[in-house]
Amino acid sequence: MTDPEREVVLRVVPHIIDINSNGHIFGGWVLSQMDIAGGIVAGRIAQGPVATVAIESMKFISPILLGDIVSLYAYEERRGRTSIGIRIDVAATRGKDQRKVDLTSGLFTFVALDEHHRPRPLPTG
What we know:
Blueprint: E1 10-12, H1 27-46, E2 50-60, E3 69-79, E4 83-94, E5 99-112
Antiparallel strand pairs: 1-3, 2-5, 3-4, 4-5
Family: Belongs to the acyl coenzyme A hydrolase family.
GO biological process, one term: acyl-CoA metabolic process
GO molecular function: long-chain fatty acyl-CoA hydrolase activity
């Protein structure tokens, strides 16, 4: 899932308040982090503000544990006239041996916004 050559867009460490009753990190917490990472990449591509309009697919592979260092990788998967599909892959660095664990992956769609918060065409080139 994650390519070691790819740039990490966001790196975060969950806190004790992010744990659910199973001792794992809430799915909503990672979803929020993914939206932030995807928005960073989409905003760069759009050269301005963007809004999340859809999460088309999301797959949880492994639970996120307290103590994980969570890295988010985001890149453009597809482009429309006003929208951008951003793939976000999430992995953890875990334990004393610092092993890499794939956590989740999702495809988020962002739309470029104009000054009136309406969809606008993406820059060309």
